[in-house]
Automatic annotation (TrEMBL):
Highest taxon, organism lineage: Bacteria
Keyword Transmembrane helix attributed: yes
Record InterPro entries: DUF805 (IPR008523)
Name this protein carries in UniProt: DUF805 domain-containing protein
Keywords of the record: Membrane, Transmembrane, Transmembrane helix
Chain ranges passing through the membrane: 23-48, 68-89, 101-122
Amino acid sequence: MSLMFQPLRRYADFQGRASRSEFWLFFLFCVGVSVLAGILSGGSMAWWSWGLGWRHHHGMHWGGPFSGVFGLAHTIFTLYVFVPSLAVTVRRLHDTGKSGWWLLLLLIPAAGQLVLLIFMLLSSEPATNRFGPPPLETDEPSPAI
């Protein structure tokens, strides 16, 4: 469980390496919060329908009395995890022996994202590389304070 929140503890740390499990657990956490916020702020289709004007033309209305609050909370959460997401992605690239500049592949529609996804799925380099020693995979609970 501690690996899931490791990127938040290393908020803007772009140095070193991040294990595959650290990256994917943090990704799962972010997706889970986003899905939950989407449901609480008005349903799973609300984000899709806004851009197309679907709900205005077909008389559909999503959301409840707190949908704006959950929408705002989701926006704040997204802004909060933006830097840690970039940092853990760069550290994950470091773990596979690649420079963080490979993150610029996100600017290439579809193909760039696919290549970056493949990089995120690659195994870690087992030995120390130019970015440092391999990350620890232990998920031991933190000692109580």
